[in-house]
User: Fold Hydrolase or metal-binding protein from Rhodanobacter terrae.
Amino acid sequence: MLKGLAITPPVIGRISIGRVVERNGKRLPEKDDQFTLTSQVQGREGWILHPLDEALRKEAGGKLRSIPVRMLFNDPALNLRADYSLFDRTTGRPVCVGNGETCRRADKEGIASLTCVGPDACGFANGACKAYARLNVLVGDGDGDALGSFVLRTTSFNTIRTLAARLQYFHAVSGGRLACLPLELKLRGKSTAMSHRAAIFYVDLVIRTGVTLEQAIVEARQLDQQRRDSGFDQEALDEAARTGFANGAFEDLAEDVPAVVEEFYPSTGPIDGEGTAAREVTPSLRGKLDDKVARLGPG
Assistant:
């Protein structure tokens, strides 16, 4: 295993709320009140839709406001990884990642382990650090790819806090059988003083529609036993994931970070419930390079 490279769950698609679009040469956010499932490929119009998006949208009869999912792991912290993150907007590289107690910070000499005081009191971040989380889920029951996940990235405190609580609670009431519960991601709206009474949307995690909590627990116990009888080792899978995450200082790949910075770490504009700027988003790294070339001129 390559040291310094975080081994993360295989990703076959993304789950997002809204998107970043290009208009008149500017990268602008476009809010939405529904989920979108995309592939990992971008075209001129943005991320290309995943085939599951159309299938689920037909089942929903239009807007996609809930997605049937299962968790990959029994350990809640492996499914949802949340930390305080600071990215370099120029290079797109992660600079510092912490949990409010300790942090890993990149400098010229390598990765340093330091005390983390959180984004509000951190003089190094100068207000550019924020909570950032990734949730990996199996869409449906993972029939097509039992280990191929969709990733939901968010900087929304509402989403992070809600998902963290739900995962811990479902893990507790199911006797640790979180990966066997039939769940669904659900989009909820709320208004706050900070949103000027406008609706903001966040993601919740609930038992699938039409199933009670008690029925879900019975199903989880049955599925857990079926998996054990077939030789499926959930404990070993959790441990493999735990070891993989610990193998690297930073989780996000360098090639993915520019898109993360563009969507969740804009330099201007207020932030909505899911971390997308309500006004203009920071130009892409390629756009910055193009601007620099234009200023320097030929030769």
Residues 268-286, 292-299 have pLDDT under 50 and may be disordered. Residues 11-294 form one domain. The first strand starts at residue 11 and ends at 23.
